[in-house]
What we know:
Elements: H1 6-23, H2 38-45, H3 47-50, H4 61-76, H5 81-94, H6 104-117, H7 121-124, H8 126-130, H9 149-152, H10 156-168, H11 174-192, H12 199-214, H13 227-232, H14 238-251, H15 257-267, H16 274-287, H17 292-302, H18 307-322, H19 329-334, H20 338-351
Helix pairs in contact: 1-18, 1-20, 4-5, 4-20, 5-6, 10-11, 11-12, 11-16, 11-18, 12-14, 14-16, 16-17, 16-18, 17-18
The protein binds ADP-ribosyl-L-arginine and magnesium ion (3 copies).
Main location: nucleus
Binding site for Mg(2+): 60-62, 306, 308-309
Keywords: Chromosome, Cytoplasm, DNA damage, DNA repair, Hydrolase, Magnesium, Metal-binding, Mitochondrion, Nucleus
Amino acid sequence: MLKIARDRFQGCLVGSVIGDCLGAPFEMQNWNENGIPRQKILSVINPKELADRSIQLKYTDDTAMAKSVCSSLLQCKEFDAVDMAKRFTEEYFKEPDRGYGSNIVFIFEQWKNAMKTELNLKNVLYPSTSQFDGKGSYGNGAAMRVSCIALFTLSLEDCIELAKKASILTHSNKNGYNGAILQALSVRKAIRASCDIDPIVFVDELIDEMKHVESFSGEVKRNTESLYDWTRSQSFSFTHQLEIIKKLLIVNNTESKENDIKLVNSVLGRDISAQQAVPAALYSFLRNLKFGFEETLYYAISLGGDTDTIAAMCGAIAGSYYGLKSIPQSWFDVCEFSKEMQQFADDFFELHKS
Ligand code: F2R
Ligand code: MG
Ligand code: MG
Ligand code: MG
């Protein structure tokens, strides 16, 4: 039997929707290298002020899609590609204005047409694998929705396999689905951490796992002199991004957020791609281990760029570690769909008891 507290299951999924809702007002609003000033973020999401206001912060596509992954797994009790695709499609056509990526919507349209006759296993992957001249999407839209897979699966192998299957439905580019695998593995590790996390050990373990996942060919050439040269000299892999995270954690000065954000934005990035957004979310969590959930979320948003998605992924990892109890009540109250995500978490928790 899986021995993980219910509070951490809840923290994972509530952390994800809260990150989405709180990050959404800032999405793509700020590309300044210094990120978004703390005061600007606080003026919108300060938990003390939100407690006195009866507003609702809306979730976006990140949660709309996560909802479909959760409900499909809970209903089918296994991965069912066609069922999940149908849920994504129905959710999109019910509320198309949740801020979806500009290309993924063509997949929903093709599935909708296929559903008029029969959407089956043979054709469910066709739209995804046809995107971008057959290269597939490397957007972060697969990574932003897979956190619950770490709650559903027991073994590392199943977690990797299921994260991949749930991703390639829409993101067949290797960076799109490998980013999702890294997100699921990060949640898995955070939710299972029994005591204080050593961030370097955490990254080292992910490096080993992602090396295996990416079947990394060729050596990672390290240049210990300069982070910048070292970054530029490599072709992309998540293993490589993790090596950069490790370096950032070693050189990082947690007292000076401004300089740190500038450096992180230049070496990791924070755009709509899985390559940038997933490492940015993971780093935000690891860098702020001393400071707790709330500070971690401010930091993730303060990077700027794809703030809803980076905060949703970071919120899932941080929530898995700190638990629901660490999330300010007013954030829970103002964010749309928090209660429903808590219920999904309870349902995943109950699955492991039976
Ligand atoms: N789309 C947004 N935000 C835009 C602003 C929304 C605004 N607030 C509003 O309400 O209108 N956010 C959401 O999109 C991201 C997830 O995107 P997803 O699901 O991965 O979509 P897609 O279309 O597959 O990829 C996104 C873009 O990435 C580029 N791209 C992907 N693969 C590529 C490839 N192989 N070659 C070249 N470019 C590629 C394209 O520009 C895609 O359109 C999240 O941020 C979510 O919050
Ligand atoms: Mg979004
Ligand atoms: Mg769009
Ligand atoms: Mg986004």
